[in-house]
Design a protein that fits this description.
This protein is mostly helical and about 180 residues long. It folds into two domains: about 90 residues, Orthogonal Bundle (Arc Repressor Mutant, subunit A), CATH 1.10.10; about 90 residues. The protein is built from six helices and three strands; from the N terminus they run H-H-E-H-H-E-E-H-H. The protein has a three-stranded antiparallel β-sheet.
Length: about 180
């Protein structure tokens, strides 16, 4: 027995939504955001929050919070429909714009924090090294921490370039932690 086209669409949406929820969850976002974005993306018309809740089987509160987050990330926008008082939403389809925003607003900030923290760790050991210059363990750790700091600074530039151009070369990181391997 063949399923009706309505049943086929529902099954396809459920499968795709669950898959995107897993992917989104892996990236550190809420799975509900993936379900909602996928539902909107696969819909030929914008949807109200009530319709989204009904089709995803999420609570109204979960849909509302997820839509707010999706709009903050630029993944979903409101669709102003004339004659309807309910707010309707549609999925952003420019994947490159989405990825760039996430890279700039999330990954770049994380790498920036890492640069700051590694810099502080280096400063702590430099102070200790200045007081006791013959402490081999401090000297060893300082060299390694400087390697991590260099790697993180290179990482920042790479992530920044990725957000801007969409292309990077990983060659600059080669040998950063092991100077003998540097090209």
């Amino acid at each position: 027995m063949h399923p009706s086209t309505e049943e086929a669409r529902e099954r396809a949406i459920a499968l795709a939504s669950e898959t995107m929820a897993e992917i989104i969850d892996f990236w550190g976002f809420k799975g509900s955001m993936g379900r909602i974005w996928t539902l909107l993306y696969l819909s030929s018309a914008s949807m109200s929050a009530d319709t989204i809740a009904e089709q995803t089987k999420l609570s109204a509160g979960a849909v509302s919070m997820s839509l707010t987050e999706l709009m903050q990330w630029g993944l979903v926008s409101r669709d102003p429909l004339t004659g309807d008082r309910k707010r309707h939403y549609q999925a952003e389809t420019d994947i490159w714009a989405i990825i760039r925003r996430i890279i700039r607003e999330r990954e770049l900030r994380m790498v920036e924090r890492a640069v700051d923290r590694f810099s502080r760790a280096v400063a702590v050991l430099e102070e200790a090294n200045a007081q006791v210059p013959d402490d081999r363990e401090v000297t060893f750790m300082l060299k390694r921490l400087r390697g991590l700091l260099d790697l993180t600074r290179i990482g920042y530039r790479l992530v920044e370039k990725l957000a801007k151009d969409g292309q990077i070369s990983l060659l600059p990181i080669r040998g950063t932690l092991n100077p003998e391997e540097r090209p």
